[in-house]
Structures are given as C-alpha cells and as structure tokens.
Amino acid sequence: MTNDTTKPADERPNGQGPENNGEERSILSRVSKWLKKPGRPGEEEGQAAGQASPAAAPASGQSAPAPSSGETSRAEGDTTSPTGSKPRRRKRPPRRRSKTPRPEGQQAAPGGEGEHAAPAAPHEAEAVKEKPATPARQPRQRPPRKAAARSTEAPKATESRPPAKGNTTLKLLINTDEPEECRLVLLENGKVESFYVETVSQAQTKGNIYKGRVTAVEANLQAAFVDYGTEKNGFLPFGDIHPEYYANEVAADTHWKDLPIQDVLSKGQEVLVEVVKEATGNKGATLTTYLSLPGRYLVLMPGSDSAGISRKIESEEERNKLREMVDSVSIPEGIGYIVRTASQEITKTALAQDVRYLLNLWKEIKKQGQTLKAPALLHKEQNIVSRFLRDHFTSEIEEILVDDEEALAQVNNFLELLPAAQRKSTVAKLHKGIQPLFHQYHVEKQIEQIYQPTVPLHSGGSIVINPTEALVAIDVNSGRTGKDKSFEDAIFLANMEAAEELSRQLRLRDLGGLIVVDFIDMRDSKHIREVEKKVRDSMKRDKAKVDFSKISKFGLMQISRQKMAAPVAVGSYRICPHCQGRGMVRSVETQALVHFRHIQTGVTRKDVKRVVCRLPMEVAQYILNKKRADLIELEQENQVEISIIPEANMPPTESKIDFLKE
C-alpha cells in the first residue's frame, strides 16, 4: 500500500506526517491479508475505492456542492465495498485531547478524533445527507458526549455573569454617653478606618484663638514665647508673626529672615495667637498670628490677601464656578479665603451663609480682643462631634449611629444645613440596643489594637510600631506568611500587606514626623516598585501632608508625615512609673545585686552602726536566701547590724535603705 499523497497536510490528524500515514496503512494491509477469509471478495477493490480521488465522486451522477476539507475527510473514511460487503475495520489511532476548539467546518481524519468532536455545522450536515446511499452498512457514529457539551457551555455562563464586587459601606459611630470621654469611629465594611477621642483630661486646644502676652524674645532661636493662659508658654516662631505686630516700620518687600526679631518684637507686647500644634511632653504648644476660621465650605483668613481653591477639586469647570460664587459674595479687603473640598456641588446660597457666619465670628473675636485683658480665650473650637462633621463628613457615609439624644440633635441640625446633593441618603439614628454601641459592632477590640505595639497581618505576618522621641520605627515581620508559597512570593506578600496596614495605623494613631519602615529585603526590583506604589496609593486617603523616599538597598523606606494632632495614646495612657516608658524592669537577681553593692558601700563608713533595708518582697527574699553568708561577713568585718525587711506592697523598682549611726 502506498502513501496517501492526495490529502493536504492540514487535513491529516495532528502529529501524523506522510511517513507515519504510509507506515500505518502498510501494517493494516498485512493484517488484513492474515485475517482474510473466504466469502469476502472485493476487499482490495473496496480499499482501492476508498483511496480514490474526490474528483471521481461526480461520476455517479449525483450533483453535490464542492466538499469542504471536513467533507473530504468524511468521504474518504467511508471505505465500503461496491458489492455491499461489510466495510473493513481500521485501527483507530490514539485519541488526543485538544484544549483549543476545532475550527468550524473542519472535521478530523478518518477513524481519529472526529468521532468525539462537536457536531458539524448545519451546511456540513446537509452535505452529508446528499451522499449516495450504498447497500453497505455505514460505520456507527457515536453521539457527542455530554461532558463536552458542558465544557463548551460553562465559559458562556461565566462570561455573561460579571464578577461580584463588594460595595463599600461607611458608618459613623458616635459614643458620647459618658461625660468624661467622647469617641468617634468611622467604619468601612466593619473595619475601623478613623478613630477620634477627646477626654476631659486631654481637651483639644488646637484651633483656639487667644489674646496673649510676649514673655520672652529669643534672638538665637528667632522665636518668642507667649503666655496665653495655660501652664506652659506657647512657642511663636518669627515666620508666624504678622507684620502688623512689628514695632518698627518695615519696607513692604523685606523678608522676615532679613530682620532680627528683637528689633521688631518686644517683651510684654500683646498679640492675638492661634494654636496650630498641641503641647506634647515638655514642649509647649506652637502658635501663629496668622489666624484662620474654618467653616464647612470655606476657610476665612483675616489679615491675609491670598485666595485659593482646594487642589482636590480637579475639574476646571467646577473651579471656575466656585470662583464666580465667591466673587459674588462680598468679602472685605484684607481677608483671604480658601475654598474647601466639601464645596463641590453646593449652591450659592449655602456658600453665602457660610461666609456670613465666619465674618460675624471674626467681628466678635476682634471685639473681645480689644476689650479683654491678656491672657484670655477669645474663641474656642467646636466640640469633637461638630468638628468631625465639619471637616470629615462626606455623602458616602450612609448611616450615623449615636447613643445620646443631645448628640443626635446636633447631627440632625448639621444634616439639615447641608445641600440636598451632599445629604443624599445619609440617615442619623439613635442606638437603642441592649449592648453598648461599640460592642455591638465589634469596635472595642479594634480600638484596643491601636494601643498595642504589634499589629497582626491577615496572612500571618505582623508589623511592630515603636514611637520614639526622634522618629517612629516600624518593623515588618513575615511570620507564617505564604506557607505554601515560594520564598520571594512570601516576602512580597508580607510587604504588600504591611504597606497597606501601616498607612492605616499612622492615621489611627496620629503618628507624625520622621517614620522609618524596615521592610523585608526583596531581590526582585519589580516587587520593590510594587511595594513603593502600594504605600503611596494607601496614603492618598490621609489628610496630612506626606512625603516618601524610595526603598533603599537595605529595605528601609523613609516617610515624613505632618503631625495633625498629639498621638492618640497621649490622652488615654500615661508613662509607667516603674519602667519609665522602657517597657522592662530589672530582674530580681539584678536588683538584689544593686542593693547589696549599695549596702557594701554604706557600711564602710566609720560612723555607721546599723543598716535598715526595706526592699520588695522578692528582692528581700533573694538576699536573705542567696546572700546570707555575705551579709554575715559584712556585719563581722564592719561591726554593723544589717536588717532586711520585706515589703509586700512596695513596687518592684523602689527601695529604701537607711544608714544609722546609733
């Protein structure tokens, strides 16, 4: 049997070249000779008929359309005998599964994959019906399997169904049922995204306006200290002193850096100052004479001639519209303004009301500043609820839950003043559940996590946050991240989660200044760029000004964040009197040795006759049990009496040792 050279190469079964096809047919011919039996004539003629060229088909008198490649292979597969005998069974080559769908109109080679393929196209089915009927029995065709049908329909169902995306749900919880503390939490899908707290012991002074008196002018610091009625004097830099307070006339184009502060400011001078940074530790509050009165839609700046619009309003059409609104409102000369982000989609009436309120407020402050004697409080910032609603409320907040009726009335009054476009579907409700408000929404555990140094990550890693006097150090630990992943992928996953979580923790804890993040070392430069991008994207939600550096070859990244307020832990925690903020105390053995050396030094004096040591219980027991022989030796050598008295109520870091002369 010769090789089949009439069939094009693309119509043969996959992977079968001309050489393989010829070898298979020669083997089949030898097998057919061995199995040939009497009474089955014409097999060789039938075989020859099966190899005939397709051009011989019209000789039968039937008119048929030009067969496609699939039809040609099907016709060649029907190797029936002209005498009506049973067709010879050919060996079926091994079935190969193809992941790509077969092109429409193309059938497999005879006896190959075509028997299990999808049904032919309609025009192919019609071509098969037009074949001449033969008395021989046609080879039995297997129906397409159901599994194949399911596999072809499944992708259609998947493509028609869009991927489900969780909708972001914002809720504001206000806890004011206790007079000593007021707390606000902004929840995003049940997760705390913002946390604000104000206590009686740590009331906020930022934004208050005072009439103060200059107590000292420091030429070396180019700053002045102002008494504004608190325990610590405020710090007033020379750059924050308005030219109207200069004692001498200065040219208009003179920069303050070119002037000595002692020539333009004198001790005892009265000034109007505003607190821009809270007092922290031993440092007093930072003050400025450039006053600002924030409203809902606009910030009024008396004594300034600047005017601007928030950078977050990017639409030029919206910016022009706001400029026209402000120009139509009569703002006196010498008073600047900044249009806030919340002014988008507002009406001219709402903006005019805000401007009118701020102008009346400034007139009242000026009047009190002229009549009251320094130091005095001229204007006190609003409480935490009104302040949050004014500065942070957005139309995305769907629900506001309050556990106090007075705070609820305050929220409703604020919502009624908003334009309809900003109010939208925000609903204020009074919490009436049996459980406290924060417990019902599982907020208390998340708040406690804010005060802990270690923050666990979702995949098993963690970040450790250590605020210091000079900077904030954040260390990233992989832990069990990516247990079944490669080493590089596990490190990348831990750093990506840490990048998102650390930005959230900086907002929640109000940490500012220089922040150094120690990421896990990564080898792939692409992963390094992805982590840097993740940090920048996560910090976009922060209202504070932030600056970043690239990750160094040691895995360190520097972040500079503006200090918006004192750290949240300042108002709720105090420094431990035992460890003094170190977080550790000396061990019992070390404390016992320290006290024993102190006793050794004291008994060497000639006039000491008796030593009385009052020590914590564990330390005293250690000296009496472990240092008994040394105590007896000290008493004999120095002729003194040493008494060790355990004190059960004495803190572990305290002690009292008296050296008596009698």
Description:
- It is found in: Cytoplasm.
- Keywords: Cell inner membrane, Cell membrane, Cytoplasm, Endonuclease, Hydrolase, Magnesium, Membrane, Metal-binding, Nuclease, RNA-binding, rRNA processing, rRNA-binding, tRNA processing.
- The protein is α+β, with helices and mostly antiparallel strands and about 650 residues long.
- Helix content is about 30%, strand content about 20%.
- It has five domains: about 110 residues, no CATH class; about 80 residues, 2-Layer Sandwich (Nucleotidyltransferase, domain 5); about 180 residues, Beta Barrel (OB fold (Dihydrolipoamide Acetyltransferase, E2P)); about 120 residues, Aminopeptidase (3-Layer(aba) Sandwich); about 70 residues, Ribonuclease E, catalytic domain (Hypothetical Protein Ychn, Chain: A), CATH 3.40.1260.
- The chain has 19 helices and 24 strands.
- The strands form five sheets. Strands 4, 5, 6, 7, 8 and 13 form a six-stranded antiparallel sheet that branches.
- A hairpin with a 3-residue loop joins strand 9 and strand 10.
- Helix 17 packs across helix 18.
Q: Kindly report the name of the CATH homologous superfamily of the largest domain.
A: Nucleic acid-binding proteins
Helical stretch tally: 19
What number of domains?
A: 5
Low-confidence stretches: 1-28, 34-87, 97-166
Helix content: 25-40%
Query: Could you give the distance between the termini?
Result: 131 Å
The CATH architecture of the largest domain comes to Beta Barrel
Oligomer kind: single chain
Percentage of β-strand residues:
15-25%
Helix/strand-derived class?
alpha+beta
CATH fold call of the largest domain: OB fold (Dihydrolipoamide Acetyltransferase, E2P)
* Radius of gyration from CA coordinates: 44 Å
Characterize the biggest β-sheet: 6 strands, antiparallel
Name the overall outline: globular
| Mean pLDDT over all positions | 76
Number of strands: 24
CATH class of the largest domain: Mainly Beta
Cofactor: Mg(2+)
GO molecular function: endonuclease activity; hydrolase activity; metal ion binding; RNA nuclease activity; rRNA binding
Biased composition (Basic and acidic residues): 123-132
Organism: Thiovibrio frasassiensis
